[in-house]
Amino acid sequence: MSFWSKKSRIVITCAKGVSPFLKQEILSSGFPVLSDGKAEVETEGTMEDTLRLNVLTRTGQRVLFLLESFNAKTPDDLYKRISRIPWEDFIPEDSYFSVTSSVHNPTINDSRFANVKCKDAVVDRIKEKRGRRPDTGPERDRVVIHLYWRSNLCQVFVDTSGEPLSRRGYRMIPLKAPMQETLAAAIILATGWMGNGNCVNPMCGSGTLAIEAALIALGRAPGLLRSNYGFMHLKGFDEPLWKALRRKIRAEAKDKLNGRIIATDISQQAIEAAKKNAMTAGVERFIEFGVCDFSETPVPNGGGVVVLNPEYGERMGEIEKLKENYKGIGDFFKKKCNGYTGYVFTGNLDLAKKVGLRTKRRILFYNGPIECRLLEYDLYEGSMKR
Ligand SMILES: C[S@@+](CC[C@H](N)C(=O)[O-])C[C@H]1O[C@@H](n2cnc3c(N)ncnc32)[C@H](O)[C@@H]1O
To answer: In this structure, are residues 142 and 99 in contact, taking their beta carbons and an 8 Å threshold?
Structure first.
């Protein structure tokens, strides 16, 4: 049996705090959930299943397919066990691979050493079998092997994603403090907005939240935007099957929205970048963009969600200036957003207090190393209390 049709464990990693949403996504794609942690969810399936998981997941970062699991105490144990894996069955002739790792083992001070041991084991095995060594390096755009080593437990995975899935490929214009695409998708999923009502996104910056919202409401798989994945570089990759899967998933998407998506920012440059990003993502005609102060953002009748990701500053001077913005968000919610559910995503809870409204839910997320909250406010008449 080819390793493409063999069942194994599949670990999908995500940013800390995102796993409840990833778990839901995996279940609704028809896969079981075997376990979940803060930054990963475990499922099972074949290598062929990883194609679907890569295309469908909005909140996952890497889809890791387990090749081998064993006990290893020292780097030499690791080398021996990894060189027993039939790499010549997975890695094609004339190919290139890289190794990434997550290592907590008492015999290893520097995880790069474990990477080198793993890489040497693979290279030596292939050289012995083929008489030629494969190329290796840090680039993650071809075959990627991932090593997980905790105490004595060692797991060797193929990273079927290659580049992290947050790199959807639509954000071409760099702006200040953009949010990762996978985090933006998790935030929209956390609001429960799926195209029911309107989605209003003042302070949209490079447009990540609005673009992810459009992809969600249209049922468009984010992975269709990308043309390169780790699995494509493995021996036995079935291109016709991949193309057929993409066609099928593309055909399932909608081409119409029920509600409106409105994205504004005070910066003309941000809106230009957001429009270009939306165009690359193929959703520009579903988002109404505008340049204005957040308080001037049009909020249509009919309700829905209003989501803001204001700056949360790092230096004291910046934080002082931002207080007015947060207070203004509270006023905007009260004056213009009646009938909506409001959301503020921030890494500074003291600033968030300036919004001055009672929060209904506080959902913990991490933006890189920064602990953040998505704060939910009920903006119905009578529910808004200082
Ligand atoms: C943290 S960034 C948002 C990043 C965004 N989530 C993304 O993924 O690119 C905050 C944005 O708020 C905008 N902004 C700041 N003050 C504003 C105001 N008074 N009215 C509207 N937008 C404002 C900034 O121009 C910036 O683009």
So the answer is: no
